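Structure (tokenized):
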């Protein structure tokens, strides 16, 4: 009779599986960014330090791997908004996040394009991605407006459209530097007419 797996061995297997899953997503993101989504899956597995069989156990198809890498990239970008707000003044957090968005588009646009070729099968994914990005932008905008560092009439959906327009030329040489200059101009517009931070109250005199 075969020995039953122990709780320790089950936990170790789960830990190994998660580690392989994460390593495959990191490797896929790097490979897709460098070579496009048609890159060899064997190359992705090799970068992750696993066999091709392990890759297919986690991601049965190329499409599944592309979708997972795309979702992970969006989630990281959106999660970054909370960290930026915790560590910076809200307007600087917003500007930094928009610059990060440009960098994200530079490395992940090919993933989105590939998935949109079969858009009907990814409706829920794109709805989820849009909601995550909208939530992140709204949090950044609301925090900056509440402290008077940007105009109070800024709408998150308008800002997303503006960022999308800035990144439309991502197939041209040198576009990232141009896009970051446009982000700076956009921030100038967001700050124009803002009331500024409320003055600090004077400490009470003893």
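Design, position by position:
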């Amino acid at each position: 009779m075969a020995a039953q797996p122990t709780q320790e061995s089950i936990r170790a297997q789960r830990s190994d599986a998660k580690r392989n899953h994460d390593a495959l997503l990191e490797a896929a993101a790097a490979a897709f960014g460098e070579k496009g989504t048609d890159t060899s899956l064997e190359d992705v597995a090799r970068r992750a330090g696993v066999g091709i069989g392990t890759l297919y156990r986690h991601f049965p198809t190329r499409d599944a791997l592309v979708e997972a890498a795309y979702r992970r990239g969006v989630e990281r970008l959106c999660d970054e908004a909370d960290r930026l707000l915790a560590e910076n003044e809200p307007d600087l957090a917003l500007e930094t996040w928009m610059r990060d968005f440009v960098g994200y588009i530079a490395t992940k646009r090919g993933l989105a394009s590939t998935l949109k070729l079969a858009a009907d099968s990814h409706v829920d994914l794109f709805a989820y991605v849009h909601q995550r990005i909208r939530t992140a932008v709204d949090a950044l905008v609301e925090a900056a407006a509440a402290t008077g560092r940007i105009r109070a009439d800024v709408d998150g959906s308008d800002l997303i459209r503006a960022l999308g327009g800035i990144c439309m030329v991502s197939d041209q040489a040198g576009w990232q530097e141009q896009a970051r200059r446009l982000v700076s101009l956009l921030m100038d517009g967001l700050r124009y007419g803002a009331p500024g931070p409320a003055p600090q109250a004077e400490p009470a005199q003893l």
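Reviewer-requested clarification: Helices lie at 7-35, 41-48, 52-58, 62-87, 90-116, 123-146, 156-166, 175-191. The chain has a mean pLDDT of 86.
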